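U., I forgot to send this yesterday:
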Amino acid sequence: MRPVAFVCAFVATPLLAASAPPTPFTNATEESGVAAVVRAHYATVPKWWLSGIDLTDLDGDGDLDLHLGGHGSPAAAASNDGKGHFTYVDPKLAVPRGVRAGDDLPYPGGEIRLAHDFDEDGKLDILASWHDAGGVLYRNACQPDAWNFTRPRTLDHFNRACAIADLDRDGIADYLADEGGRDSRKVLLFRGKSGGSFGPGTPIEVGAEETCPIPVDLDGDGDLDFLISRRGYNPPGRRILRNDGNLRFADITADAGLNPEGGSIHGVGDLDLDGDFDLICIEGAKPPLRLALYLNDGQGRFAAKPDAIAGGDKLRLAHTNWGGAVATDLDNDGTPDLLINGRHFFYALRGLGGGRFEVANEAWGLPAGAWSAVDEGLCFGDMDGDGDLDIVACGRGPEGREKGVEVFRNDLPRQHWLRVRLLGAKGNRCAAGAKIEVFEAGTRKRWGHEQVAIWGRQSFHSYYAASATERHFGLGTREAVEVAVEFYPSRRRVEQSRVKADSVVEIREP
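Result:
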C-alpha cells in the first residue's frame, strides 16, 4: 500500500500547486453590497465629500452597520443583515440637517467623532462633526423598523480628537476633546453628570496642538495617564503625561524614553503580552518615516525594540499626524496583530510574539496604499458574524476619480476566538478604563490583555462600536480559557473560568 500512497501523493502535488492559493482577505466590496451603497449615495448626493468610515451598531440590533461620513454634506449609512450584507438607508434629504437643524434624522450626518451611549439606554448615541467648526450630538431613538436620531443639545462641542474616561474617579464617565482651535495646546475636560449630560469644559495643558489623549494606565498605579500626539498641519510631536491621581499631569516624555519632537504615538497595546502597555509610534520629520515599537518596563519607562518589524522596508509611511494604530488579533492565533493607517497608507502587521511583527499586507491580500487623506481612516469588526475581524478601508470610487470604500472579508484559516462584552456600573456603563486579561485554562499564561481606551482622531476610531463595549481575542487552538476583568475606577475584579471558545461572554461590574 505504501507505494500506492506515495504515487497518489506525488501525482496530486502538482495539481495542488497549480491551483491558486486562497486569498486570506477577500475583496467583498461588491458581494457585501457596499459598492452599491456608495454608488447610490453618489447618485443621491453628487458632491458628496466622503470623510469617515465607521462600523457601528446604529439600530441596536446587535449587528455592525456602516456609516460613511460626509464633510459638510449628508453622510451615507447602510444596514447590516447580520451576515455581512449591507443595504442603503434612505437619507431623507428633505429633512433639514446641519449644526443648527433640530429635526430628527434617520441617521447622524457629518463625520462620526465618537459613538458612545451617553444616556446609557443601551443604544449608541453619536457625536458628529459637520465641517471644520460644527459639532452635533445625536441621541439614538431607533426602533427595529425605524431609524431615528434626535438632537438633545447637551453636548455640541466641535473637536478633531476626543476620548471617554472617568478622570475624576467619581464613577461617571467624562468627555475629553481638543479645545477646537488649530493653535491650542489644551484639551477640555467635560465632567460627566448623571443622565448623560456634562459640565463646562475645564482646560488641561498638554503641550501639543489639535490633539486629545489616549487615556491608559502606563505605570500600573491605577490612574489614567495621557498619551498625546500633535495633529493637523504641524511638525511631529508627542507627549507622555503622568497622572498623579489628582488630575495633575506631569510631562515625563524624555524621562520615559521618547524624544518629544521625534514623531507620533499612533496607538497603544500590550504588544508582548507581559502585562503592561506598549507604544506604537511613527518617527521622523519627513519621509521616509519609520515605524517604531516601544516596550514598557512595567513602570512607564520605554525602550525601542530593535528589529521589531520584519519587512519594515516595505512600509511607506507618508505622514505622522493623521490616523492611528490598534493592536487586535486578526488571525485569531492568540498573538496580537497591528492595524495602522494614516494619510495615503494602510498596513496590517502579523504578530510573531514577544513584541515582534511582520508586514502582512501582501501575504494577506490587502493593499498597502489607500485613498484616505486626513479624515477617512479605516475600521474593523466582525461584519458577518463568523468570529473573525473584517476590514473596511478607503478606496477608489465608482468612477475611479473620487473616494470610495473597499471591504475586505477575513478568510484566514479558522481558529478559536472570544468576545468579551463589558457592562460597567451606572455612570460608566461603557466600562472605560477596565482591564481585560485572558489566560490559558488552569495557568496564568496570558493570551490576551487590553485596557478599554475609547478614543478617536478625526475619523479614526480605536475600536468598532457595538451597543455594549466589546473586545475581541483570538484563542488559537484553545477551546476554553479564563477571563479576568478589573473595572475602573472601582478596581473591582471579576474572574470567570472555563469560558468556552467561539462565544461572547458578558461580564458585569458588581
